[in-house]
Design a protein that fits this description.
CATH class of the largest domain: Alpha Beta
Number of domains: 2
Largest sheet: 8 strands, mixed
CATH superfamily of the largest domain: Vaccinia Virus protein VP39
CATH architecture of the largest domain: 3-Layer(aba) Sandwich
Shape: globular
Structural class: alpha/beta
Mean pLDDT: 78
C-alpha cells in the first residue's frame, strides 16, 4: 500500500510539472508574439491595442488561467517542481518537449556569407531564402567597408573587384582559360570526360561515391563546391539531400552560367538551399569557421596559389570540417625527365598553374596550411586527397 501511495504521489507530481512547463512555454510564446506586435505597430506609427489578458481577451479563458497561474507560480509548487525536475527522466522529457515545441517555430537563417575584403558578415537587404532563383537578385552590404554586393540572374558576385567600373582584374592564363564561353560550353560536353581516358579519373559518379566516405562526419551541414565549373558535383550534392546548404563557387561567370542552365534542366533537383557564387579561391567570402565541408574537383592544379586557397579553406571550415579535392600527379616515368622541377617552375610562372610531382607534395601542402589527417587515393594520374580542420 505504501508503494502504491508513493507511485500515486509521483504521478500527481509529474502531472503538475508537465502542466507547469506547458504554462511557462505558453507565457513565453505570448510575450514574444506581443513584443513582435508592439514593434510592428511602432514601426507603422500606430498605437498598440490594449491587452485584456495575458493570453487572450476571452472572459472564460481569463477565469480559467488565473487560478492555474496562481497555483504554478506559488512558492510551494516551485520547490516541489525543482525537486522532481532533478530526476534524469524528467530532464530528458523536458529536453524532448522543448525540441518538439521549437520545431514549430521559424528558425533564423544562419548567415555564412561575408565581405571578401574584411570578412565581416554581410547584411542582407530583406530576409532572402537561400535559393538559386532569389539569392542572385539580393543585395548585400558590409557594415564595416560600406560596400554593396549584388548579382545577376544566375549568381552572386562576391569578388573583391565586384562593382568596379573602370578597373579590370585579370587572372593567370590557367584561370582565364575557363572564363572563355567555348571552354565553359565544352567542359561537361567532352572536356571533363577526357580526364578519365588519359588521367585515370573514375568519373563524377564514382568520384562522388569515393568522397562520401570522407564527408560522412559532416552530413547535414553546409558544403562548398569550389571551382565548381559547370556544377556536375554541385548537382550531385544537392540531389543527395545530405547537406543543408550547397554553394556552387567559381571565378568564371560563363561557368556559373552553364551551371545555372544545367540546374534548370536537371530533374528531381531542388532550387532551395542551393546558391551560385562568383568568388576568388584566395579570398573566400565566408565567415571564419562557418562551413562544414569544401570540395574541389580537378581544380587544385589550376589555382594561381594552391597554398593561399587551402589556407582560406582552413579559415572558413568549422573545427572538424572536411576538405576533399582531386587533381593530377605527374610521376612514374615522367619523374625521369631531366630538370623536371625547373621546367615545372617555368611553366607555372607562365600559365599560373601548378604541376604536382607526388602525393607527398599534396600532403605537405595541407599540413603546412593547418589541416590534419591527410590521406591520398591514387589511380594513375588521378589522386583524391582528403583532410580535416583540427577539432
Amino acid at each position: 500500500m505504501l508503494l502504491l501511495f508513493y507511485l500515486y504521489l509521483c504521478n500527481i507530481g509529474l502531472y503538475f510539472l508537465f502542466l507547469f512547463l506547458f504554462v511557462k512555454r505558453l507565457q513565453q510564446q505570448t510575450n514574444q508574439s506581443r513584443a513582435t506586435e508592439m514593434a510592428t505597430m511602432a514601426a507603422a506609427n500606430l498605437s498598440p491595442a490594449p491587452v485584456a489578458t495575458e493570453f487572450g481577451s476571452s472572459t472564460s479563458t481569463r477565469s480559467f488561467l488565473k487560478p492555474l497561474l496562481f497555483m504554478v507560480n506559488s512558492p510551494l509548487f516551485r520547490k516541489f517542481a525543482a525537486k522532481v525536475r532533478e530526476s534524469p527522466t524528467i530532464a530528458t522529457f523536458e529536453t524532448i518537449l522543448e525540441t518538439a515545441l521549437n520545431e514549430n517555430e521559424p528558425k533564423a537563417k544562419e548567415q555564412v556569407l561575408a565581405c571578401p575584403i574584411c570578412y565581416d558578415t554581410l547584411i542582407w537587404n530583406g530576409d532572402p531564402v537561400f535559393s538559386v532563383d532569389s539569392t542572385p537578385r539580393s543585395t548585400l552590404k558590409c557594415n564595416i567597408c560600406k560596400k554593396s554586393y549584388s548579382g545577376n540572374e544566375t549568381h552572386l558576385d562576391l569578388t573583391v573587384a565586384s562593382g568596379t567600373k573602370k578597373y579590370g582584374e585579370y587572372m593567370p592564363a590557367s584561370s582565364e582559360l575557363f572564363r572563355l564561353p567555348i571552354v565553359s560550353f565544352l567542359y561537361e560536353r567532352g572536356w571533363r570526360q577526357a580526364f578519365s581516358i588519359w588521367g585515370g579519373y573514375p568519373g563524377p559518379q564514382k568520384e562522388y561515391e569515393m568522397m562520401k566516405e570522407y564527408l560522412n562526419p559532416v552530413i547535414g551541414g553546409s558544403i562548398i563546391d569550389a571551382s565548381c565549373g559547370s556544377g556536375m558535383f554541385s548537382r550531385l550534392f544537392q540531389k543527395s539531400r545530405l547537406f543543408s546548404l550547397v554553394v556552387a563557387l567559381d571565378y568564371s561567370d560563363t561557368m556559373l552560367k552553364q551551371c545555372y542552365d544545367f540546374i534548370k534542366q536537371e530533374e528531381n533537383i531542388s532550387n532551395e538551399n542551393l546558391i551560385l557564387v562568383k568568388a576568388d579561391i584566395a579570398r573566400l567570402p565566408f565567415a571564419s569557421s562557418s562551413i562544414d565541408a569544401v570540395h574541389a574537383g580537378a581544380a587544385l592544379h589550376c589555382w594561381p596559389s594552391p597554398s593561399s586557397g587551402v589556407a582560406e579553406i582552413n579559415r572558413i571550415l568549422r573545427p572538424g570540417g572536411v576538405f576533399v579535392a582531386t587533381t593530377f600527379i605527374v610521376d612514374g616515368p615522367y619523374s625521369y625527365i631531366p630538370f623536371l622541377s625547373p621546367i615545372r617552375e617555368i611553366l607555372g610562372q607562365i600559365s599560373g598553374s601548378r604541376i604536382f610531382l607526388s602525393d607527398r607534395e599534396l600532403k605537405d601542402l595541407c599540413i603546412t596550411c593547418g589541416l590534419v589527417d591527410v590521406t591520398c587515393v591514387r589511380n594513375r594520374r588521378f589522386v583524391m586527397i582528403s583532410a580535416r580542420k583540427p577539432a
